[in-house]
Amino acid sequence: MSQTIKLTTAQTSGLVILRLFVGWHFLYEGVIKLYSPSWTAKGYLLSATYMKNFFQWLAGESMISIVDTLNIAALLIVGLGLILGYKTKLVSIIGIGLLLMYYFAHPPFPGYPQGITEGSYWIINKNLIEAAALMVIFLFPTSKVLGLERLWAKKNVQASTT
């Protein structure tokens, strides 16, 4: 039983803006880390309060350079993909995975230390909220409204009609 939901222009515009804002946040975080030669995820991973063994393994000497590189690359790829409207389903899934890693390193669970946070959270924090926003972006094809996927879809339609 499949239903098609018709969105208003305002709703679609809101979803496009959400995609662009989340994309900007990812891209910004990736660029800042890329151009900060002393940046590393090591301290964040070593201070993990949940799944400590896993995050300490990621912070180990044999893994940290790979983890840092993959973190920066994922942030840049997700950010650019969302802003450009290219492969938005794929980059949304990558972004959700990255945010869940951040979330589970320092979850706002009762009884766990909160560490340095921007507020007092209980179960839900900004990482989980942004992951939910990426789920919405995944579910609604806004790149077909504004993005490279729209341009290529038009080219494919024109090529198939000629």
Low-confidence stretches: none
The number of helices is 7
Q: Overall 3D geometry?
A: globular
**How many strands, what sense, and barrel or not for the largest sheet?**
none
Class derived from helix and strand content: mainly alpha
Measure the end-to-end span.
35 Å
- Share of β-strand residues: under 5%
What's the average pLDDT? 89
Helix fraction bin: 55-70%
Task: Return the string of H and E elements.
Answer: HHHHHHH
What's a concise summary of this model?
With 162 residues, the protein is mainly alpha-helical. The chain has one domain (9-161).
Keyphrases for this structure?
162 residues; mainly alpha; 7 helices; 65% helix; transmembrane helix
What does this protein look like?
- There is one protein chain.
- The protein has about 160 residues and is mainly alpha-helical.
- It has one domain.
- Helices cover about 65% and strands about 0% of the residues.
- The chain has helices at about 10-35, 40-45, 50-60, 65-85, 90-105, 125-140, 150-160.
- The model has no long low-confidence stretch (mean pLDDT about 90).
- Keywords: Membrane, Transmembrane, Transmembrane helix.
- It is found in: Membrane.
- This is Thiosulfate dehydrogenase [quinone] large subunit.
- It comes from Cecembia rubra.
